Amino acid sequence: MSNEAMAFFNGKLSPLREANVNIATHAFNYGTAVFEGLRGYWNGDSEELYIVQAGAHFARLHRSARILRIDLPYSIDELVGHAVDMLRANQFRQDVYIRPLAYKSDPVIKVG
After folding, report:
1. Which of 31, 33, 37, 63 could form a disulfide with 103 if both were Cys (CB 3.0 to 4.6 A apart)?
2. Segments forming the whole domain that contains residue 76
3. Full 3-state SS string of 8-58
4. Residues in Cβ contact with 74 at an 8 Å cutoff, skipping those fewer than 6 apart
5. CA distance 84 to 82
6. Model pLDDT for residues 60-102, shown as the tens digit of each residue
7. Each residue of 6-48: pLDDT tens digit?
8. pLDDT surpasses 70 at 1
9. Number of structural domains, the chain?
10. For residue 41, is it within any domain?
11. What is the CATH number of the domain that holds 91?
């Protein structure tokens, strides 16, 4: 694993310590967010990390986001690609848990 953890945040890979939301963000105040949980398993024999059912998880994230009218600007394939890029950037050589989130990011505190 690299020295500095990386996250996919606001459309790019960023150091995890910089991936922050404002406390006035709608999702923080009203819970307008959706998430998934994906497992990735390290295979030492092939020296590869395998994500379990990534496409199905990101399809479910898309459906959940649509229900809450959250704009998710990435296709399922793009989300899988971003997850793979993030895992590679972190150089994981162990089992991992991936927690993608989509949320309403308007920094306006109001019901809408």
Report:
1. 33
2. 37-103
3. EECCEEEEHHHCCCCCCCHHHHHCCEEECCEEEEEECCCCEEEECCHHHHH
4. 82
5. 5
6. 999 999 999 999 999 999 999 999 999 999 999 999 999 999 9
7. 999 999 999 999 999 988 888 988 899 999 999 999 999 999 9
8. no
9. 1
10. yes
11. 3.30.470.10
